[in-house]
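Chapter summary example.
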Amino acid sequence: MRTLGIILAGGNSKRMRELTKKRAIAAMPMAGSYRAIDFALSSMANSNINRVAVITQYSSRSLNEHLSSSKWWDFGRKQGGLFVFNPTITPDNREWYRGTADALAQNINFLCDCHEPYVVIAAGDGIYKVDYTKVLEEHIARDADITVICKDMPKDADVSRFGVVELDVDGRIVGFDEKPASTNLNTISCGIYVIRRRLLISLLEECIEMEWTDFVRDILMRQKNNKKIYAHKLESYWASINTAEAYFAANQDFLKPEVREWFFRTEPEVMTKVEDNPPAKYNPGAKVSNSLVAGGTIINSEVTNTLVFKNVFIGSGCIIRNSVIMNNVYVGDNCVLENCVVDSRNRIEAGSVFRGTPDHVEIVSGKGK
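The structure predicted for these 369 residues follows.
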């Protein structure tokens, strides 16, 4: 069944603190060698979705450079392709995207020009693998108008940063509560939707007429009694990285053998833009345990429970624990980093000490992209 993919990748969050001052959340480096958007793109490519549009807005230069060639996700083809849409200022429209529904509505001509009968809409900040073919089969079998991919969270999980859904016995969504202060429910929306293209166009035309801008509030919540909106439960790993602590935790999850097995050794693969870096080098004095180390990196010190991204230099006498060090970082001698996220293209002077906690990570900010 032919399907069109749309990734909403223009978002930013103040809860990411300094990490998104220079990049969109979807462009955040992940798991040593990836970007957050790679997971949504790879799920679509692996589900034979050949035409994908990425809608960007906030600080999109880094993301646009990452997407400059579609070959890495096998979208460079005659039928289909990878399209990147930024806000367009015209005599009739001088607005940036005012919300998720408005971002789709401002690109409604793209939807009208396509011929795929179904659309998958996904957020760019999710870390997961999904077979959309199975989701679409369930969507058609239920005769659903909209299918929302959902996840059951642990009973003690904080769901206040998610949209919480209420289901009936058949799995139909009968209630939405967007970012509740408190709730007894623990099933959340993953921000991934399947919908018929013509229905989506009709709903967006109504949004344009009524000047509605948000997909959840103005489409899902308004239509829950008029349209058949069902949940598809995701049983495998999923994480959203829309806070600094969530970003830190999602990267730390890749140090767990079962998570690495799922993403790195279980087909289908997660694809990304590949750089020609030499293997990591461990000099005398290096002691690395339970860590992911990317290519182009040189280590001279103790590194534990840490993700070290590409082209990082770590000097002698350092103690680095429970941290995330992004691309192109220089760490001088005798530094201590614990529960930290070190932003890309940063230089840490010799003898520096940075300590955070898992509940409030220390952000060591740089100026790179």
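To summarize the output: The mean pLDDT is 92.
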